[in-house]
């Protein structure tokens, strides 16, 4: 039998899209014959799904679903490789069925849903030729809930004490547009404030030169106050009426904002290049230990 080298595994992976260890197994079974390994993999029907399973899925859709009594909601992200697939009926049905199941079964995170939907996911991957993944899920319960979807790219759930669902939806729309980091200024960490102070001082070093210490402190304090207002939902000017802050809007309606959850498609997904040669070598080395 021919020796199975890293270069052979790399070539088979590039030609089929299969995983490293699956390529090594196929080559071993085929006695080192790459063409036979490819034929065997094609015959097993594994190539298409395996190829897509290794590709980065950073597009997709956000879905939100509210219970009939408006006191429970689920927000979920499902990723695809292309924005085109996210607009197709097969993908939309997978997303819809998944979030229906998540709400009905009172799921609080993605792990059990991923397991429950794996067969359907694999079937979809095989049909559409793209990787599809359920990435994350959050369940929200509250007195009054409101949700907003901006297309299929941004989703928000807002929980209120008092008020009504229309107010909650308006605030959710604001969150989608303004993307606050925190609910209240008191939630902003000391580290975040320190970072903002350091950035401000660095950008305004020339302006602060020669000024009395108390003036410099006032400049810094002013910037920090502005930062806190920009980062905190209740302090932001409401997008529909900038004369009111979001906190004042809620208070005027006799409501209190309890929480908000905002998802954007692909947030935090690393789309960086992969060194396939190094990956092959590393996985082969690990398998031979």
Cα-atom radius of gyration: 26 Å
Q: Per CATH, which architecture of one domain? A: 2-Layer Sandwich
The poorly predicted ranges are none
What is the topology, as strand order, of the major beta sheet?
A: 1-2-3
Features:
alpha+beta, 289 residues, three-stranded antiparallel β-sheet, Tetrahydropterin Synthase, Chain A, Helicase, Ruva Protein, domain 3, single chain, flat
The gist of it:
By secondary structure, this protein is α+β, with helices and mostly antiparallel strands. The protein is 51% helix and 20% strand.
Topology:
Layout: H1 6-16, H2 20-29, H3 34-44, H4 47-53, E1 59-66, E2 72-80, H5 83-86, H6 89-104, H7 110-116, H8 118-128, E3 132-141, E4 144-150, E5 154-161, H9 165-178, H10 190-203, H11 205-208, H12 213-231, E6 237-238, E7 241-245, H13 246-252, E8 256-264, H14 276-287
Antiparallel strand pairs: 1-2, 2-3, 4-5, 5-8, 6-7
Helix pairs in contact: 1-2, 1-14, 2-3, 10-12
